From TrEMBL:
This protein's encoding gene: shc_2
PANTHER family (alphabetical): LANOSTEROL SYNTHASE, TERPENE CYCLASE/MUTASE FAMILY MEMBER
Domain of life (superkingdom): Bacteria
Enzyme Commission number(s) of this protein: 4.2.1.129
UniProt keyword Repeat present: yes
Keywords carried by this UniProt record: Lyase, Repeat
Domain Squalene cyclase C-terminal: 285-591
Domain Squalene cyclase N-terminal, residue spans: 15-179
Pathway(s) annotated for this protein in UniProt: Secondary metabolite biosynthesis; hopanoid biosynthesis
Protein family per UniProt: Belongs to the terpene cyclase/mutase family.
Keyword Repeat set for record: yes
A Pfam match: SQHop_cyclase_C
Entry GO MF terms: lyase activity
Designated name of the protein: Squalene--hopene cyclase
Length: 620
C-alpha cells in the first residue's frame, strides 16, 4: 500500500506534541514526569505498615487510614481473572497476585473482601502458586525470596520453604562482593541483609557453624544497612525494595530501628491521594535527558541554562555509598535513593551536549567540559570485558542487571561518539583513544548478540503481548540508533536490523513489540525515528505509514496514552506519562527536519537551474 506524506501535517503534529512536552516542565524548567501506580508497590507498602502496626499499642490508629485506603485500592483494581498486574494496564501475574492476596490476610480484611480473596486464591492455584514464583525467576533470588517472605509474614508460606540468604556476606568489604558472587543482583544488598535476617530469625540453620556466623553477623550487617540507606529512607526510591526491608525488620520486632523508621517515613511521604503507591518516586533525570535529546537543539538559551545547571548538579561527585560506584555517573532521579548507571549517564552526556550555549565559536564552559570528561571516564571504566556495558557494576555477577545489555551498550556508544565529535583532538588524547577503542569493541559485542532475525533484545523494556515479555522492536530501534552515525550505518548488522523493523510493521502502519502485537505510540515513534536516522526518507512507504499513523494519534489526541512497556527491577512493569510524548516529539522533529532540508535542497536546485540552465550533451 503506497502512502503520501504531507509536510504540513507532520509540522502541525510536531508543533502540537512539542508544545505539550514543553508544557509539562516543572517550575524549575526541567521534567519530572509521573510513573504509573502499582499494585505490587501498594501491596508491599501495606505489608510494611501492617508489620509496624502490629507492634504498636491498640489505641494507635495512625496507620489505619493508609492501610485501609491501600486495601480498598487493590480491591478496586483486581483484574477480571482474579489476579493483579504490576500496573492498572498490565496482565495478571503470579508474583503481584500473591503479594496482593497476602495483604488481605495479613490485615484481616478477608471477610470484608470475600469475593476478591476467593478469586485471587483461585488464580494462584490455577497458575501454580509458590512453584510458579520460583520458576519465574530461576536462579535469581532477588525477587522470588522477597515475595515468599512477604507471604510468610502473612502466614501463608512456611519459613522453611524460603531459601536462606547469606546476609553475613554483607559484612565483607564492598570490593569482595564480586568475588563471593552474591545470590542477588548488585542493587539488592538491602534486601539481602533484611530478608536474610528475618528468615534467620524465624528459621535458624541446622548447621551450628552457619548458625553462629549468622548470629554474630546480625549487628554488623544492620550497621551496613544503616550506612547505605538514603537520607529520605527510600532504597533506590523504590517502594517495593524499601517495603521489603521495612517489613522484614519490623516483622522480627525491630520497629524502632532507624532503618524501619526512615523506611516508614518514605512510604508515608510517597503514598498517592487514591491510596496507592508508584513503583518508584520519579525518573526526573531520565525523563529530562530524554526530553532534551528529543527536542535536539530547539530550546532557547534561557530554557537551556536552568536545565544545564540542574543536570550538572545531578552528577555524582563522590564514591556512592550503596554500590561503591566511582564519581562521574548519573542516576535516573535527582532524589537521594538514586544510583548511577550506564543508561542514565550516556543520556545525560548527550543532553549536556545538546544544551551547550548557542553562541557560535563559543568554547564549552569549563564546568561542562569537566563533567563530560568525568562522565566519559566513568563509562569507560564500567565497560565489561566482552565489550558491552552492564547497568550498575562491572563484573559483579551473572544476573541480568550485571551483564552487558544491548540497549544500554548502544546508548553508551552514541554518547561516546557525540563526545568525540565535540572534544578537541588536542585535549585528553589518551581519553579519546580509550573512547574510540571502546566504541569499536562494543560494536563487535553488538554483532554477537544480534538475533538471527536481525533484532536485538533490550534489558529494561518489554511488551506483554509478546512471548516471554520480550520487546525486539524497542531493542532493535535503540541499538540501531548507535549504527546511524559513521561507517557502521551501512554495515550488515544495520541492514538486517532495518529489515527486521520493516518486517514487523503492523497493517495499520504502527509498531508493537513484535509481529501482531498491538501498535503503540512509544514503539511506533521509536521505529520511525530510528529508520529516519538511518537515512530512510519520509516518503519511504514503511516510514510514511508510520508517520501517518503517528500524526493521526496526535490529531485525535490519543498520542499521550501510555503503554506498559517499561521494566523496572526484576521485570516489574511500569509506564511513564512522558514516554509517548517524548518519543513522538523526537520522531516528528526528525521527520520535519528531513522534510525541511529536502525542500530547501529542492529550492536551491531550482534556483541554480534558473541561473545556470541545464545544457544537453550536444550543446556542450
Amino acid at each position: 500500500m503506497s502512502e503520501t506524506i504531507s509536510c504540513q501535517r507532520i509540522q502541525a503534529a510536531y508543533q502540537r506534541s512539542r508544545a505539550e512536552l514543553l508544557s509539562l516542565r516543572n517550575s524549575t524548567g526541567h521534567w519530572t514526569g509521573e510513573l504509573s501506580t502499582s499494585a505490587l508497590s501498594t501491596a508491599t507498602a501495606i505489608m510494611a505498615l501492617e508489620m509496624i502496626r502490629r507492634k504498636r499499642l491498640p489505641a494507635d490508629l495512625s496507620l489505619n487510614t493508609y492501610i485501609d485506603n491501600g486495601i480498598r485500592w487493590l480491591a478496586e483494581h483486581q483484574n477480571s481473572d482474579g489476579g493483579w498486574g504490576d500496573t492498572v494496564k498490565s496482565f495478571s501475574n503470579i508474583s503481584t497476585t500473591m503479594l496482593c492476596h497476602a495483604v488481605f490476610h495479613a490485615t484481616k480484611s478477608t471477610e470484608q473482601y470475600v469475593s476478591h480473596v476467593v478469586n485471587a486464591r483461585q488464580y494462584i492455584d490455577r497458575v501454580g502458586g509458590v512453584e510458579a514464583v520460583v520458576a519465574r525467576y530461576g536462579k535469581d533470588k532477588t525477587f522470588s525470596v522477597p515475595i515468599l517472605t512477604h507471604c510468610a509474614l502473612a502466614g501463608l508460606v512456611k519459613w522453611k520453604t524460603i531459601p536462606a540468604l547469606p546476609f553475613e556476606l554483607a559484612c565483607l568489604p564492598a570490593r569482595f562482593y564480586k568475588t563471593v558472587r552474591l545470590p542477588v543482583v548488585s542493587y539488592a544488598l538491602p534486601a539481602l541483609i533484611a530478608i536474610g535476617q528475618v528468615r534467620h530469625h524465624f528459621c535458624k540453620p541446622r548447621n551450628p557453624i552457619t548458625r553462629l556466623i549468622r548470629k554474630l553477623a546480625v549487628k554488623r550487617s544492620l550497621k551496613k544497612l544503616i550506612s547505605i540507606q538514603p537520607s529520605n529512607g527510600g532504597f533506590l526510591e523504590a517502594a517495593p525494595l524499601t517495603s521489603f526491608v521495612t517489613m522484614s525488620l519490623a516483622g522480627m520486632g525491630l520497629t524502632d530501628h532507624p532503618v524501619v523508621q526512615k523506611g516508614l517515613q518514605f512510604l508515608l511521604d510517597s503514598v498517592r491521594p487514591d491510596g496507592s503507591w508508584p513503583i518508584d518516586t520519579n525518573l526526573a533525570t531520565w525523563t529530562t535527558t530524554l526530553s532534551v535529546n528529543a527536542l535536539e537543539g530547539t530550546l532557547a538559551e534561557f530554557e537551556k541554562t536552568p536545565i544545564r545547571e540542574w543536570l550538572l548538579q545531578q552528577q555524582y561527585k563522590e564514591l556512592h555509598p550503596y554500590t561503591s560506584a566511582e564519581p562521574g555517573g548519573w542516576a535516573w532521579t535527582d532524589l537521594p535513593g538514586g544510583v548511577p548507571d550506564a543508561d542514565d549517564t550516556p543520556g545525560a552526556i548527550l543532553a549536556l551536549l545538546n544544551l551547550q550555549p548557542d553562541e557560535p565559536d563559543t568554547q564549552q564552559p569549563a564546568d561542562l567540559q569537566v563533567a563530560l570528561r568525568n562522565g566519559v571516564k566513568w563509562l569507560l571504566d564500567l565497560q565489561n570485558s566482552n565489550g558491552g556495558w552492564p547497568t550498575f557494576c562491572r563484573g559483579w555477577g551473572a544476573l541480568p542487571f550485571d551483564q552487558s545489555a544491548a540497549d544500554i551498550s548502544a546508548h553508551v556508544i552514541r554518547a561516546l561518539q557525540a563526545w568525540l565529535q565535540t572534544e578537541p583532538e588536542s585535549a585528553e588524547a589518551e581519553l579519546r583513544l580509550r573512547a574510540e577503542r571502546a566504541v569499536r569493541k562494543c560494536f563487535k559485542y553488538l554483532a554477537t548478540v544480534q538475533r538471527p532475525d536481525g533484532s536485538w533484545l533490550p534489558l529494561w523494556f518489554g511488551n506483554q503481548h509478546v512471548e516471554n515479555d520480550e520487546n525486539p522492536v524497542y531493542g532493535t530501534a535503540r541499538v540501531l540508533a548507535a549504527y546511524a552515525q559513521g561507517e557502521q550505518c551501512g554495515s550488515i548488522q544495520a541492514e538486517q536490523g532495518i529489515l527486521f523493523l520493516k518486517s514487523v510493521q503492523n497493517l495499520d502502519g504502527g509498531w508493537g513489540g513484535a509481529t501482531s502485537a498491538p501498535s503503540s505510540v512509544e514503539e511506533t515513534a521509536l521505529a520511525v525515528d530510528t529508520l529516519l536516522a538511518l537515512g530512510l526518507e519520509p516518503a519511504d512507504p514503511v516510514v510514511a505509514q508510520g508517520l501517518n499513523w503517528l500524526s493521526g494519534r496526535v490529531e485525535n489526541g490519543t498520542y499521550t496514552e501510555t503503554t506498559p512497556i517499561g521494566f523496572y527491577f526484576a521485570k516489574l512493569w511500569y509506564f511513564e506519562q512522558l514516554y509517548p510524548i517524548i518519543f513522538t516529539v523526537s520522531a516528528l522533529h526528525r521527520a520535519e527536519t528531513v522534510l525541511k532540508k529536502s525542500a530547501d535542497d529542492n529550492l536551491r536546485l531550482s534556483l541554480e537551474e534558473e541561473d545556470y540552465p541545464i545544457m544537453s550533451v550536444k550543446e556542450k
